[in-house]
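Data availability (excerpt). The following record was deposited with the supplementary files.
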Amino acid sequence: MRWNYSKRPKEDGILRHPADAEEWKQFDKRHLSFALEPKNVRFGFATDGVEPFGNMSNSYSMWHVILVSYNFFPWNCIKAESLMLSLLIQGCTAPEKDMDVYVRPLIEELKELWDSGVQVRDNYNGTVFTMHAAILWTINDFPAYAMMSGWSTNGYKACPTYNEHTFSIGLCNKIGYIGHRQFLEMENPRRRSKKYDGKIKKRPRPPEMSWDDVLAQLEQIQYHLPRKHKQLAESNVNVL
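Predicted structure:
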C-alpha cells in the first residue's frame, strides 16, 4: 500500500503509473492532509454492462461496478485480486436513470471513508491508523458516462467538457457536431479556408466548464414530485 511513496520511480515527464499523472499531483495539492498518509486508498470507479452468457444476440444486460485500487505497483493494479466487485446489477436492460439508486449505498460508504475514515490495523508493523479513501476518476464508455453523471450524451449539448458551448446542428434524423476548427489556433490557415463548410471560422475556442460552473448549474435544478406527494416534497426540499 506504500509502494507509490517508497518504491515508485519518480522522474518528471515519464508516465509509468497513475501517480505520475497531473490529476494525481493536483489532488495531492488540494488535499494535503490526505496525501500525507501513504496508506490512504485511491480508487478508480469503473462500470459497464456485459452479457454474462457470451451470447451477443441476447439483449440481457448485467452491470457491474468495480473499484480499482491504485496503491499497488502497475503490474498488480488490474489483476483480479486487486479489483473490488462492489455492485452487480442484474436485469434485462441497463439501469439508465435508476443508476444513482443502485450506487447510492456504495456512495454513502465512500463518503464515510472520505470524511471520517475507519480504524484499521497495519499488518506489516502492527500499528493502528485511520484510513481514508478517495475516488480519483471514473472509467466508462460514453453511454455509461451519461448514466453515472446524469448528463445526456446524445443531445445537442452532448459534450460534458464544453457543456452549453457545444456546437451542434440538427440533421435528418440525427444531430451533427461540427465546428471543430474552432479548437485550432486563431492564426491557423485552416480557419480561413472555405473548403469545409463554405465559411471562415472566426469563432474562438469555447471555454471549458469549471467545477464552480457545474455546481452553479446543479443548484438551479428544481425537483418536482407528483401532486399526491406535494406535502412530502415540501418537507424534503432542503434535503434535495
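Summary of structural features: The chain has a mean pLDDT of 83.
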